[in-house]
Amino acid sequence: MAKIVKNTTLSDIEIYGVGIVIEAEESHVVDPSNYRLWASAIIEDAAFQADIDSGDLVVNDGHEDLNIYEAKKFLAYPDEAWNVRFWTDDRRSNGFPNHLDTVQEAIEYAKSGAIDNDLDTFQYGRAGLIANTTFLYNLFQIPSDESPSCTKYDIIFRGLSFSNSNNSASFNVKVYTYPPNTNPIPANRTLIHTQAFSGYSGYSVDLNIDVDIGESLAVEVEPPQSGIKPQGINVILYSRKR
Question: 218 and 178 in contact (C-beta within 8 Å)?
Fold first, then answer.
């Protein structure tokens, strides 16, 4: 990572807050020992801010030019992980996708993709033909709207998968929550996700829906009003602790 300030004009620009002049069409590489000085300058020096806003001064992180918002944050808050930017040609040296520019983005990506942090699954199913909209059973063969699955901590509902014995069927899977310690009647449930599926099996990921500790989950299958119905459905919800 580097902090480079470029003068894009044909005139010299003085930055009073740091006591330097950047000559016309030249660049200045900020010494790391002066990061705090530059942070104060971009916060307090209105002329410096105006030069950034106008594009007369452009900030580069050693890899690419930053937009105005990124540039100000990059200079003003050097200790925040959102402003510590990767300095590599392809942004892949750490095995992360190339759209991850900052350390904090990498942290957030790792958090959202973690599968070993108290990963929980909730499984539901029902044998036979699903001719009408119906709630699936939990593992103890109780309809999930009568005995929904209670969460033991705050979770992120990350995705779901299904299997179905009728390849030609299309249907919707609906996921509901109930408040903690609440009678699981229709008036108390909230629909948090609807997913359209078809075929023998499939999945949906990156949902990232918050479910709070003590809330309960139930799953409903909605077959088409006409046409081929699903049969022998199994649905698994995936979550992790947050």
Answer: yes
Distance, in Å, from the CA atom of 146 to the CA atom of 99, rounded to the nearest integer, reads: 44
Helices (H), the chain: 35-44, 46-54, 68-76, 103-113
Q: How many domains does the chain have?
A: 2
> Where on the phi/psi map is residue 54: left (φ > 0), alpha (ψ -120 to 50), or beta?
alpha
Q: Specify burial of residue 205 (Cβ count, 10 A radius: 0-12, 13-18, 19+).
A: exposed
pTM of the model: 0.54
Question: Which CATH number characterizes residue 127's domain?
Answer: 2.60.120
pLDDT at residue 178 in the model? 96
Q: Would you tell me how many other CB atoms lie within 10 Å of the CB of residue 159?
A: 18
Q: Identify the helix (H) or strand (E) that includes residue 211.
A: strand 209-211
Range of the domain at 191: 120-241
> Do 214 and 106 share a structural domain?
no
Distance CA 226, CA 105 (A): 46
Q: How many CB atoms lie within 10 A of CB 87?
A: 12
pLDDT at residue 171 is higher than 50: yes
Same-domain status, 108 and 136: no
Task: Write the secondary structure of 114-138 as one string of H (helix), E (strand) and C (coil).
Answer: CCCCCCEEEEEEEEEECCCCEECEC
| CB distance 160 to 203 below 8 Å | yes
Backbone angles phi, psi at 56, to 5 degrees: -65, -35
DSSP structural state of residue 224: -
